[in-house]
Amino acid sequence: MSTILSWRFLKKMETDRKPVRIRVLMIFLLLIILIVAGYLWLPVGRLLHRSPLNEKEFVNQQQEDQSPNSVSFNFEPAPNTETPAGLYKGIAHSGSFSAKVFGINSYSPAIERKVSETGPGELKAIGVSAWVYIFPTKADITSDLILGISNKLGVNVIWKKVIVEGTRLPMGKWFKVSGFFDLADKEINADYRLQLFYWNNSKADILVDDFYMVFGTSPERKGDTTYVDMTLQKPFTAKLNTPPFPFIMAEKQEIGNHSSAFLVDDGKQKQGLISPDDRLFTRNFTGDNSGLDQLLVLNPGKKPELFVYSREKKAFSMISVNVDPSIQPFMDSPVILAGRFSSRSASELIFIKEKEILLAGFSKNVAGKEILMRPIRKTAMPFPVADLKKFQFLAPDINGDDISELFAAEADGTWHLFKFSEAGWEQVSSAEAHTVTEWMDEGGRISFFAGEFRPLPSWEETILAIMETQDHASVKYSLHVLDPVTGQFKRLFRYKQKLHDTLPGPDVLNPGDQILTGNFGMPGLFLKYNRDWRFDLKLLSFENSGYCIHGNVDFKGYEKDHNPKYFEILRIIPGCFIEPGKTSLLVIGRNCKKSDPGTGKCIEFDDRPELPNTIQVYALPYFSKND
Q: b vs e for 535-552, b when ≥16 Cβ sit within 10 Å of the residue's Cβ?
């Protein structure tokens, strides 16, 4: 009997084990599925990640700026070494190499640092950035710029990422991604390690370049207390010509000089170390059919230089300028103007010195690598001038015939308009025949500018006068166009703009402004630039009912924190440098090391590591009527 009971008991035990074995097997299979899925789709495998390519393979070529508080990494292998796997040659944001991140679950080489190497004090924040290039694809992009912080065992204890995903990302060009991570609430030991790398989990092929890490938070800044009235209970509503104005971003263009202080800097030769104090002119002086402006640099102590941009090479080149000996005494003239005075094909120069005017042009030599500045005609001043400093000279195309005139005006309302002919400078009109009441505000300041300021397409250029009263109480402006029949300057918008003559404060226009004209899309758009007490660059236009402030202009696409507006001295020159018919901005940035005690003018520049001297080109958006 006991034998039968034992057999039944064992049989029951065996039957009960079958579900257990099945459950164990199912759990085992589920774990395998989860591990595979995590490896393919989740960043679980990154908890113990170490890049197969070590930074030491590239260290001879790395540039660490402001180390140890920042570090950059550009994937350039050391000279005379074998190129490590994982690099891509031919498409790079800087240098010749970038890193491949091709296909699902692929990752780039990494920057790796000990926390103790990042600088003094606690590590409370990290800023990261990288440049990304996605080969054109229809696949959805899923990728991240990842910052991992690992302990002594190599396990990541902090995981941060900049997400780069979607179907609307730029394709076939470099774009920058960046992030800032606040680590103030994290416990980070000195022997922990930081690792920055890029992870791709899509079917796309991606390149990355120029990794950059900045360690620490911004220092505390002392300043004035700002009070905001929160009691009005009225939401903000945008209002014409009332701040805050929208921002319009000018984007950095590629000119192949690595943003250095030289306009031509290809790593082998450096040319065009242009000072903000040089006399610069943007015109087509050679008469070629490129549709681009050239940059002419004149300095009495140097040989003239002419720079031409190549759209194929995306870089400037220099043409040497030889000066005819008869022109040499005029190179330091107080007044030099550029325009087309005797020719519609190429631009020329006017030199006004003492009581003489010299008109000069340019001739190419056979090689095409040098040009000659040659005299066209030298004449006496066509009107009496006791002091050139009292006159303002312009070279406008006042009647739209593609030939420039010579306009001269004095603060007391005296003005003259001349046109060049075979007989010399012939007077078109003057204040003796036609006075302009708005230009006769004696005692105050007045500045004259020429440009296509009208809101409708027009070939004739307009004279803009900005006038400040002697007591600095108000600023007015006027726009005048020449009547070719009567020779009289007539005011535009005489009636409709009567109530808009007085401008509210220095935030709009004043006689000390630089007015930068060009083709920015819609007719009549222009820039006003002022650095009297702060950086102020605005896009404006004159409309039938008054002026219109379209917005503040700022910059983007620059390296690191090198925004052009941060320079103490910034020269801005408009011209069609990059694309025919579209005006861009050439900027020359300098900081001052030593100023003249009497005039306050900078007499020695300072090339600072945190904001190095630079010359760059930026392009504004091209505006249409729908913008």
A: bbbbbbbbbeebbebbeb
CB of 121 within 8 A of CB of 184? no
Burial 435-447 (b: 16+ CB within 10 A, else e): ebebbebeebbbb
* CA-wise closest residue to 130 among 168, 99, 165, 153: 99
The CA distance from 519 to 582, in Å, is 5
Tens digits of residue pLDDT in 110-156? 888 888 888 767 788 899 999 999 999 988 999 999 999 998 888 88
d(CA 4, CA 345) in angstroms, rounded, equals 119
User: H or E segment at 34?
Assistant: helix 2-41
CATH class of 51-215: mainly beta
Beta strand pairing call for 315-323 and 370-380: parallel
Q: How many CA atoms lie within 13 A of 386 on its CB side?
A: 2
Residue 376 burial (C-beta neighbours within 10 Å; 0-12, 13-18, 19+): middle
- All structural domains of the chain with their residue ranges: 2-41, 51-215
Strand 415-421 and strand 406-410: the pairing is antiparallel
CA within 13 Å, CB half, 425 = 24
Q: How many residues does the chain have?
A: 627
DSSP string, 536-552: EEEEEEEETTEEEEEEE
What's the pLDDT tens digit per position in 451-464? 999 888 777 899 99
Burial class (CB in 10 A: 0-12, 13-18, 19+), 132: buried
What is the end-to-end Cα distance of the chain in Å, rounded? 100
pTM for this structure? 0.65
- CA–CA distance, 565 with 151 (Å, rounded to integer): 42
* Residue 377 contacts residue 359 (beta carbons within 8 Å): yes
Provide, for the chain, the percentages of residues in helix, strand and coil under a 3-state DSSP scheme, each rounded to the nearest 5.
Answer: 10, 40, 45
Give the whole-angstrom CA distance, residue 371 versus residue 373.
7
